[in-house]
Fold this protein.
Amino acid sequence: MAALGSAAIVPRNTADGIYAVTLDARGQEVHTRLPDDAELPQDLNLSAYDKREETKNTPWKSEDLNTFCTCGNGADKHDTDAAVQDLQSQLGQGKKFNYLSVYSKRGDVVAFACKEAKLEFAETSAKDVELIMAEVRSACGAYTPGSANFKVKRDGTNRALTYGFMKLADKDVEFCRMATASYKVPKCNHH
């Protein structure tokens, strides 16, 4: 699997909110707070062609996903639901973005969409987040942190994003890198 974005470490004392991660000229991460009540910039909306491509590649089944679970203690229900909802609100009906990742932090939870580093743009929507998070919850347990990405699209290309949520520990959490470092389902016993 291609490398995901950069490490995407949520800086200590980061306020709750929605952020985009980019790199500056020195290769250092820059976390830019996005407006809470707005979607990603309009000029990056999906084109009609992109929307047709997204429709053509659905519906998908859980077998189409690589799902990863931490198999540890669950995340706070309220923070998790709020972080996922914030991320969905930001992505709206569908967006193309060039950030390394977009994430929402609420309390001690981060919900994220991390782009493969080699790609200039990635496409996603609130519906993508909703469907994939539902699959993560089904595979890992209701509030057990985890992530998922598509194995291969029907046209043979890899899917550009990994979605998930994690608990923020006392130390810095590299959520994009850690998203696929957990146990691959079905190793967790959450039933």
Q: What stands out?
A: DSSP finds four helices and ten strands in the chain. Residues 1-9+63-191 form one domain. The longest strand covers residues 17-23.
